[in-house]
Structure formats: structure tokens, C-alpha cells
Amino acid sequence: MYLKARSIFLSILLACLVIPTVSAAEYQPQKVVYHINYDDPKRISATFANMTNHIGELGEDNIEIKAVVHGPAIKYFMEATEDEAKQTTLDSLRLNDVQFIICGNSLDGFKVTKEDLYEVEEEDVVKAGLPEIVHLQQQGYFYVRP
Predict the structure, then answer these.
(1) CATH number of the domain that 41 lies in?
(2) Does the residue 15 lie in any domain?
(3) Tell me: the pLDDT tens digits for 37-68?
(4) Residue 126: exposed, middle, or buried by beta-carbon count in 10 A (0-12, 13-18, 19+)?
(5) Count of the separate structural domains present in the chain
(6) Rounded to two decimals, what is the model's pTM?
């Protein structure tokens, strides 16, 4: 009985050793839209960590990330104007070619302008966030909402 169990264990172990694992070289280039509309600093931080890990796994030449930001998530960009840690996080993602797309309706709702947000340019603002997400999906972007 012991030899039979040992033989089965060794067979399983050997199979695990020869089964290939997925490496970054095996992923095809990806286009992803991250949907961010929550006002939970821990969740936003986790989402940004997901983006960083995503880029790290595929390499910045093999991934295109756009993050559509609307609703209460706008507050993060407002707070970043005076919060160096948030600035560093956003700058780091932007240096890895993440584009943050800001909802104009949310700006109107919070009664702020792009100037009230950290490093947001005119080309980063769209009229409405949700239609932009659908538009990006129609262009082949995969939807992610951590």
C-alpha cells in the first residue's frame, strides 16, 4: 500500500513539473479599461496596485490601460492636488502610459473643473464616463472593475 501511494504521489509530482506555466511572453497584447467610480481609498489603492501588477506582468509595450474615473472617485484626484503620496501614485501610473479619463458630468456634479484635479488635461475629460466605457469596449478594450 505504501509503495502504491508513493508511486501515485511521484507520478503527480512529475506531472506538475512538466506542465508548463503561463509566462508573460505567452500573453497577447492587451487593451483594458478599468472602471473606477468608488470613494474607498483602500479599494482605489488596490485598483492601482492591480494596474501596476498588470503592467508588470505584460510589460508596458504589451498593454494599453485606460481608467475611466467618475462619481465619487473624482475626490481622489481632488485630494491629490495636496497629497504627495497620491501624486506619486498617479505619476507612476501615468509614466507607465495609463491614461485617466475623467467624466465631465462628475465634474459638474461635484462643482469642480479639471483645474481642481491633479494633472488633468482637457483631452483627459469626456462628457460622460459610462458611454466612454462602452465606446472603449467597442474598440476592443476589455472591461475590468476591481
Answers:
(1) 3.40.1260.10
(2) no
(3) 999 999 999 999 999 999 999 998 999 999 99
(4) middle
(5) 1
(6) 0.81
